[in-house]
């Protein structure tokens, strides 16, 4: 879910492929049911513009959820909870002298629930509603003197709350003869 | 013809650019009007 900034999973973690969004589109061909996703990723030789050597990082992600369809697919719900553990996450930090730079700051954890709903109210009107809560923080900061990050510091650029409400109207236009 | 109105909310975000700060939440409203035939669609949109 959530685009990186989708709301969703706007918490698309930087540098890694975004977690797959669970579409609530009534035309979604995905079969309903429960699902469990376990993913991992690993990066080596991380590019950096300075002489600083970044350590390799890796990520583990677990996602458990359900896709449900009701009333002849006129009403759909996709919901899940996720847990992500990122080892050697990179963050932009600012030193006390004001110099900003990217570096690995330690380990981070991200977790939260997500939900998407879509309802075909009439043949012409569809309502979409989605929301997510994301807890994302540095769980084990790297032991570096002067690093302005402590255990519990939030991971940057990941909103704690996101939500979306949309109304779609679709109709056929009459042919002018 | 399709018409869509959507409101998106993004909560506060912790950010570091020149210094660490928490950016406030914001909302984005999207209006979209389109016409289409077969695989082609033309839309007019506005974001507020």
Helix count of chain A, per DSSP? 0
Main β-sheet of chain A, in a few words? 7 strands, antiparallel
| Beginning-to-end CA distance, first to last residue of chain A | 45 Å
C-alpha-based Rg of chain A, rounded: 20 Å
Output the radius of gyration of chain B. Answer: 17 Å
Would you report the number of β strands of chain B? 5
| Overall number of structural domains of chain A | 1
Q: By helix and strand content of chain B, what is the structural category?
A: mainly beta
User: Which residues of chain B form runs of ≥5 with pLDDT under 50?
Assistant: none
Average pLDDT reading of chain B: 92
SSE pattern of chain B = EEEEE
Distance from first to last alpha carbon of chain B? 22 Å
Structural class, from helix and strand content of chain A? Answer: mainly beta
Shape of chain A: elongated
Share of helical residues of chain A: under 10%
Strand composition percent of chain B: over 45%
Weakly predicted, low-confidence segments of chain A? 1-22
Summarize this structure as a short list of keywords or feature phrases.
heterodimer, A: 177 residues, mainly beta, seven-stranded antiparallel beta sheet, 0% helix, elongated, B: 48 residues, 5 strands
Give an overview of the whole structure:
- The complex is a heterodimer of chains A (177) and B (48).
- Chain A has strands spanning 2-3, 7-8, 33-43, 57-70, 75-94, 100-120, 125-133, 135-141, 161-170.
- Chain A is mostly beta strands and 177 residues long.
- In chain A, the strands form two sheets. In chain A, strands 3, 4, 5, 6, 7, 8 and 9 form a seven-stranded antiparallel sheet that branches.
- Chain B has strands at 2-10, 13-16, 20-23, 26-37, 40-47.
- In chain B, strands 1-4-5 form a three-stranded antiparallel sheet, with no helix packed on it.
- In chain B, a hairpin with a 2-residue loop joins strand 4 and strand 5 (40-47).
- The two termini of chain B are 22 Å apart.
- The mean pLDDT of chain B is 92.
- The A-B interface holds A 5, 7, 10, 91-94, 98, 100, 128, 148, 153-173 and B 1-20, 25, 30, 35.
- Strand 9 (161-170) of chain A pairs antiparallel with strand 1 of chain B.
